[in-house]
Each structure stands twice: as structure tokens, then as C-alpha cells.
Design a protein that fits this description.
The protein is mainly alpha-helical. Helix content is 40%, strand content 0%. It contains 3 helices and no strands.
Length: 85
């Protein structure tokens, strides 16, 4: 496999998409639009799903670029973990 074909491969493996990779992030348009609508309506939205579901990719390569395009100030992504006793 050449370096050029590696860089154009849309299948990223187990690592999440990053901000700036929205051109190769596809297939989640409805989820991105639904999240944008929720944020516009409520300003605070909790995104929760099982590990490996693609939450980070959805935010980084889908929602965050769209929010910036819409003129929102975007804070860094935060992760919340439950305390287990």
C-alpha cells in the first residue's frame, strides 16, 4: 500500500476521527443535524452511548465543524465518568 492510498483511506481503524477530518467523515449526517438542532434548542446536551459507538468521531469530525460554521464558540470536549465504589 502506498503512502498516498493510506492517507486517502476513509477507514480509520479504532482511533476516532479528529477535528479537521470532516471531509472524510461520512454516514452520520442525520445524527449531526439532530445534535445541532438539540444544541440550538437547549444549549446543553448530554451525548451518551456505549464505548466504541463513535461519539468522539461524531463530535470531532461532524458536530464541532458545523457548530463553528454556524458561529458558535466551541469549548474543548470534556469526558465525564461515573464514580464507582
Amino acid at each position: 500500500m502506498t503512502e498516498e492510498s493510506k492517507s486517502s483511506n476513509p477507514y480509520r481503524g479504532p482511533r476516532p476521527f479528529e477535528i479537521g477530518e470532516q471531509k472524510i467523515f461520512f454516514g452520520r449526517d442525520r445524527e449531526v443535524k439532530d445534535l445541532l438542532s438539540l444544541i440550538i434548542a437547549h444549549r446543553v446536551v448530554l451525548l451518551y452511548a456505549q464505548s466504541g459507538a463513535g461519539k468522539t468521531s461524531l463530535l470531532n469530525a461532524g458536530l464541532i465543524p458545523l457548530l463553528i460554521e454556524e458561529g458558535f464558540d466551541v469549548l474543548p470536549v470534556a469526558r465525564v465518568r461515573a464514580l464507582r465504589q
